[in-house]
Design a protein that fits this description.
This protein has one helix at about 1-100. The chain is mainly α. The longest helix is centred in the middle third of the chain and has 97 residues, at about 1-100. About 0% of the residues are buried.
């Protein structure tokens, strides 16, 4: 009877240990899946944030290009205005040179 009781206790202990091991494995798998989901969500959020940053950078590049075009256009207009001013001065000087009444 002592031997049978010892065998029953050992078998029960093994069953409990196997049950605990299976439960621990299941908990580990559940946590691992949760970490995988969390990592996936973070990667998705990172991708969305990256796309938004790329969009903003593209908008900034477009604004910078527009500003550069406007700067070049203003510079061109300034040169054209200076050329017109010189032309007007030359015409005025020529008119003064040919005018017999101009002193």
């Amino acid at each position: 009877m002592n031997t049978a009781l010892a065998i029953i206790i050992v078998v029960a202990a093994i069953v409990v240990l196997v049950g605990l091991a299976l439960y621990a494995r299941h908990r580990h798998d559940v946590k691992t899946d949760a970490y995988r989901r969390e990592a996936s969500e973070h990667r998705d959020l990172a991708k969305i944030t990256e796309v938004e940053a790329d969009r903003r950078a593209a908008e900034a590049d477009e604004r910078a290009a527009r500003a550069e075009r406007e700067r070049l256009e203003a510079e061109q207009q300034r040169f054209a205005a200076a050329a017109q001013r010189r032309s007007a001065d030359d015409l005025r000087t020529h008119a003064d040179d040919v005018d017999p009444d101009a002193d």
